[in-house]
Design goal:
With 268 residues, the protein is an alpha/beta fold. The chain has 2 domains: 158 residues, Rossmann fold (3-Layer(aba) Sandwich); 102 residues, Arc Repressor Mutant, subunit A (Orthogonal Bundle). 54% of the residues lie in helices and 16% in strands. The chain has a 7-stranded mixed β-sheet, with helices on both faces. α9 packs across α10. The protein is globular.
């Protein structure tokens, strides 16, 4: 199957199909008049979600026919409530237009705590059309009556939009949900690979399991440092470090600053 092509927002707005617009942490695509979708990854901020909302309006422009939508949020590693409040406002403001344009929406949530947060967010949104939340993309597509093979196309689209191999995106989503107990063994099992194959494919992508684990812990720690008053010792344990000393050394090596200095500078 020919992969969807990257396009500019004005092309998508003018009715182009089989293409996608990419932002820092999202890709918004139109496969055809009957199927639109969004892929989310990382930790979208207000700028990212604002850009996404601007392209979501393209789905509502007449003479658009009704369509189904899929939102694959399985690769999210964090949720910023301020950013996602923009989606809430969009749905509320466009409720009637959405009811006319969309027949049903399937959302694939991340694993772990982030999955519960994302699912909870969708639960409190107004529902201008039927919405269902899934743990698996193929099951979500089946509910939309879209061939399950389209999941392969969405993986390829994410890889192009995020410039990240699909395996790496899935590993990062897994690590974000399992910081306290992640190991190469558990990660390989979750990704249905042997440990040797996982290590080899990570090497081909220019990284290692340990490097990805450290980066995942630092990303989670930075979010807690910036958005909470959680004590450093608690943050160390939350992100899977055995002690405050271990966490401080890991954080300083990755960022060049101590956790307390990083928090003070960025909050200022």
């Amino acid at each position: 199957m020919v992969p969807m092509r990257a396009c500019q927002a004005d092309e998508l707005a003018s009715g182009a199909m089989d293409c996608f617009v990419a932002g820092g942490t999202f890709a918004h695509f139109c496969k055809n008049a009957g199927l639109w979708g969004v892929i989310l990854w990382g930790r979208p901020n207000e700028e990212d979600i604002g850009a996404l909302v601007r392209t979501l309006h393209f789905e509502l422009r007449p003479p658009a026919e009704t369509h189904v939508s899929v939102v694959d949020a399985s690769r999210l590693t964090g949720v910023d409530p301020r950013a996602f409040s923009l989606l809430d406002r969009y749905v509320r403001e466009q409720f009637e237009a959405l009811a006319r344009a969309v027949r049903r929406l399937a959302m694939v949530r991340p694993t772990g705590v982030e999955g519960a947060v994302v699912a909870g967010f969708f639960e409190v949104l107004p529902r201008p059309y039927p919405v269902n939340v899934f743990d698996d993309l193929r099951t979500a597509l089946d509910w939309l009556e879209v061939p399950a093979s389209f999941a392969v196309d969405m993986d390829a689209l994410h890889a192009r939009a995020a410039q990240t191999p699909p395996l790496l995106g899935k590993l990062r989503a897994y690590l974000a949900a399992h910081l306290a107990d992640a190991s190469v063994t558990s990660a390989a099992r979750a990704l249905t690979l042997s440990e040797r194959t996982l290590q080899r494919r990570l090497g081909e992508a220019g990284t290692t399991f340990q490097q990805e684990l450290v980066e995942a812990r630092v990303r989670a720690a930075q979010h807690l440092l910036l958005h909470s008053d959680t004590p450093l010792t608690n943050i160390a344990l939350d992100v899977g470090c055995a002690s405050l000393q271990h966490f401080s050394a890991l954080f300083r090596k990755a960022t060049g600053e101590s956790p307390s200095a990083w928090r003070a500078r960025h909050r200022t």
